[in-house]
Amino acid sequence: MAIAASVAPDVAPKPRRGSRRNAPFIRRRPLARTRAGLPYRIDTSGDTVVVYGPKGEPDELLQFYADRRLAPPDIEVSGSSKRDIEAELKVYRSRALRDIIAVVGVVNAVRVKHPAAHRTMLLDRHASRGIMREFFGKCGCTVKPGSGRNAGHVVQANTEAQGIEISVTVTALSGYLGIMAEAGLYEDHDATKMDPKASRMATGKSKSTSRGEDGRFTVDTDRYFRIRGVGRTAPRTNNPFFLSRVMAAGKAYGWCKAVEVCILAKGRTGGRDFQVRPATWYNYIVQGEEKYIPAPRKGGRRYWRSQKLIVCSELRKGLEELAAAATAGGIRALRALARTNKGKARLKRMFIFSVDGGVSAMSYSYLNDENFRPAIEQAGLRLRNYGAPNVEYRWVTMHQLRHEFTNRLLDHIRDTCANEKDRLLKQVRLAHYMGWRSGEAMLRYYGAWHFEQETYDFISKAQEAANDNTIPPGIEQAVRQAMNDNDRTVVSAVAGGLIRMAA
């Protein structure tokens, strides 16, 4: 009683730490709250994008960045239609939102140790790089100094997909620091780039391109953090009807005939975009004799006869329907033009995949951004990462059609070959058809799915000795010793029917 009397009646006793007094309900572990408060949140439901801070109010600095990043760029109006301008603005906004989400994701990832990471980054480049290292650690990546004075630091990703996402994030952070520098809020060098004294670029250059021994081009943008994946492995799906799903998605979205046949051509020939999209009727009717489409190889685009994209029966039917819709008289009228020199000259100026009557090839922006990508997103088609088959990590791209074409043929070769020599011969012919400058490069890219080590060693050693994609003499000799004349005829017929002849 004495203790109770000593307490003033108008002063409530202070509850002990951890006590539940005066707290009828306490959530032991809030779902999203940490010591740093609620995570930053992006609201895109309205006409504008709002970035909310930990207290539920718009964050002034991140909101300033979002507004500046979403500000529409200056677009050249002359010669551009309203549809082209709207499509370009749509693509710009999509990329801007991607960057904003990436920056806010970094801030949320490190907010326990750095409650206001986006403000800490503005102190100097060392503070910014410290935030980035913390983020890489949260992602489970390791960061090690590169070999050499100008090597920067190497970020080792756990999967190829994670490497892509981190690379996009670093690019977004570079843009964030750039916008803040323009506003006078950041006064140091771009933290994502090498310091001026240690730059790998020549004066006035922002990137450099080089070609490795495997024939693959690499681009150096002078990054301080260089992201390294687990190795380049071609993505693939386990669905043999993958192309059918893509075409069904396009039909549901409402592709025009030119877009539909162009996507079909990529899926049935394995050609790259610059090999398929700019093709003319002269290439198909005169040069290819309606059996193939001559196309330039990668790195040598002026040589139109250097690679032949085979036209199967399904694609041939689509091309004939496209000709009927684009020209009076259809494919017969185009064949008639091919009989005269004047007509051939006209065919050279008539593009197959066009939306303006053949005057010009459809743009990549129109094909991908206005048609392919929206159809894929509407259908929900995503790629699955090698090594993590249950993880969906990004939308299907047009180039994935080339990978699936190669994977399906390699599956067919594996299932139909009578022995190792047959499989070896067909794999080399496929590498030649797909236009790989180096047989070893192709085997490394697709090898995790299809090739055994013995096959890899044999083909890579034989092809790299000549540094081209011709059939190595060693394989011909091995086949000659293992088969009689009749066997060789059968193998050649199967390989030729698979790779070189029209279906």
Secondary-structure map:
Layout: H1 2-5, E1 41-43, E2 50-52, H2 60-70, H3 82-109, H4 117-120, H5 125-138, E3 142-145, E4 153-156, H6 160-182, E5 208-211, E6 217-220, E7 225-228, H7 242-253, H8 257-269, H9 273-276, H10 281-287, E8 292-295, E9 307-310, H11 313-326, H12 330-337, H13 341-348, H14 364-379, E10 382-385, E11 388-395, H15 399-416, H16 420-433, H17 439-450, H18 453-466, H19 473-482, H20 485-500
Parallel strand pairs: 4-7
Antiparallel strand pairs: 1-2, 3-4, 5-6, 8-9, 10-11
Helix pairs in contact: 2-3, 3-6, 3-14, 7-8, 7-14, 8-11, 8-15, 10-13, 15-16, 16-19, 16-20, 17-18
How would you characterize this protein structure?
The longest helix is centred in the first third of the chain and has 28 residues, at 82-109. The model is unreliable at 1-34, 301-305, 386-392, 462-484 and 490-503 (pLDDT under 50). The protein is mainly alpha-helical and 503 residues long. α8 (257-269) packs across α15 and α10 packs across α13. The strands form five sheets. The chain has a three-stranded mixed sheet, with helices on one face. It has a two-stranded antiparallel ribbon with strand order 1-2. Strands 5-6 form a two-stranded antiparallel sheet. β5 and β6 form a beta hairpin. It has helices at residues 2-5, 60-70, 82-109, 117-120, 125-138, 160-182, 242-253, 257-269, 273-276, 281-287, 313-326, 330-337, 341-348, 364-379, 399-416, 420-433, 439-450, 453-466, 473-482, 485-500; strands at residues 41-43, 50-52, 142-145, 153-156, 208-211, 217-220, 225-228, 292-295, 307-310, 382-385, 388-395. The radius of gyration is 29 Å and the shape is globular.
